[in-house]
Design brief:
Length: 83
C-alpha cells in the first residue's frame, strides 16, 4: 500500500474536546478528555466516508485497522509523556 498524505486542521469546540479534520476528505477525528480520578479518560471517535467501487472496498476493509494502530500509538505516547 502506498503512503497517504493528509492536510489536517484542528479546532477546540469545548474545553475537553479537540476535533481534527482533513481539508481534502471527509475524515474527522474527535478527541474528548475527561478527568477520571487521578487519571484521565480519553475517547477517540473517527468518521470517514470512503471511496466507492473496488478502491472503496479495500479502504473500508483496511482503514479501520490502520486508524486503530495510529490512535493506539498516539494514546500510548500520551500515557508515556504523562508518567
Amino acid at each position: 500500500m502506498g503512503q497517504v498524505t493528509f492536510r489536517m486542521e484542528v479546532g477546540e469546540p469545548a474545553a475537553d474536546t479537540l476535533v481534527e479534520w482533513d481539508t481534502e476528505s471527509s475524515l474527522v477525528t474527535t478527541w474528548t478528555v475527561r478527568p477520571a480520578g487521578h487519571a484521565a479518560a480519553v475517547r477517540v471517535t473517527t468518521r470517514w466516508q470512503g471511496a466507492s467501487g473496488i478502491g472503496g472496498f479495500f479502504e473500508r476493509r483496511f482503514a479501520p485497522a490502520g486508524l486503530r494502530r495510529i490512535h493506539d500509538g498516539t494514546l500510548a505516547r500520551l500515557a508515556d509523556a504523562l508518567r
